[in-house]
Amino acid sequence: MHHKLISKGISGIIPDGISELDFSVVSEIDEISAKELLNLFVKNGIGSYDSNIVYFQENDKIHAAIFAISNGASIEDVSEFLNWRDFEVLVGRILEENEFEVTKNLILTKPRMEIDVIGIKLGIAVLIDCKHWKKMTQSALNDIVDKQIERVKNYVEKIETDLAIPVIVTLHQEQVSFVKKVPVVPITHVSSFLDELYGNLDKMKTIER
After folding, report:
1. Which of 70, 120, 167, 202 is the most buried (most CB within 10 A)?
2. How many of the other CB atoms lie within 10 Å of CB of 120?
3. How many CB atoms lie within 10 A of CB 41?
């Protein structure tokens, strides 16, 4: 089955039960292909059949996204069918695959701040702000970077961390760029960015305790 069709099916993955017909309607796939795709999902551990109803779990949308990518879909194509929370989960999964210890949606108080995704490895904390937006102006990006730097400073003050790095991950961007030495990383480059992280620390904004 073509990876673009698998990607479209992600939108039809709704927790609890969905009929084959409703899956077809929601994902905008013809009924025959929708049934074939549901069978393919279930065969690969994504959802389970009970009569003509397929029951999905909360993480099945991410599992389907990873399945689509493994079948040739680009991360950018798949991300089109994920909402902002799904996008954060996908970033977390990429960190985990790179052997980072991951925390999502950490709330700090006084002042109240939320950090989308934190990955820790070898004593270095990577604090990621996920932006599931198609385009950003330079002024908006500057503001996003400033706010993430403040979050990281607050985190370092309150959490026992020797070194932390602010990072922005975006959906639509062609290559890694730097704003005030803060990496702005497209979702398609997160894994390679993490691979090269420790050799490029001197190029990045780092905040120490």
Report:
1. 167
2. 17
3. 25
What pTM did the predictor assign? 0.75
Give the contacts of 169 (CB within 8 A, at least 6 positions apart). Answer: 91, 117, 128, 129, 130, 131, 185, 186, 187, 190
Lookup: tokens for 110: 């006084």
Domain residue limits, the chain: 3-75, 84-208
Positions in the chain whose pLDDT score sits under 50 = none
Summarised one tens digit per residue, pLDDT across range 79-97 is 778 888 888 888 998 999 9
Tell me, what's the pLDDT at 173?
Answer: 67
- Whole-number Å distance between alpha carbons of 183 and 166: 7
How far is C-alpha 135 from the chain's CA centre?
Answer: 17
Cα separation, 120 vs 115, in Å, equals 13
Q: Does the domain at residues 3-75 carry the CATH identifier 1.10.287.3510? A: no
Instruction: Please tell me the predicted confidence (pLDDT) of residue 48.
Output: 94
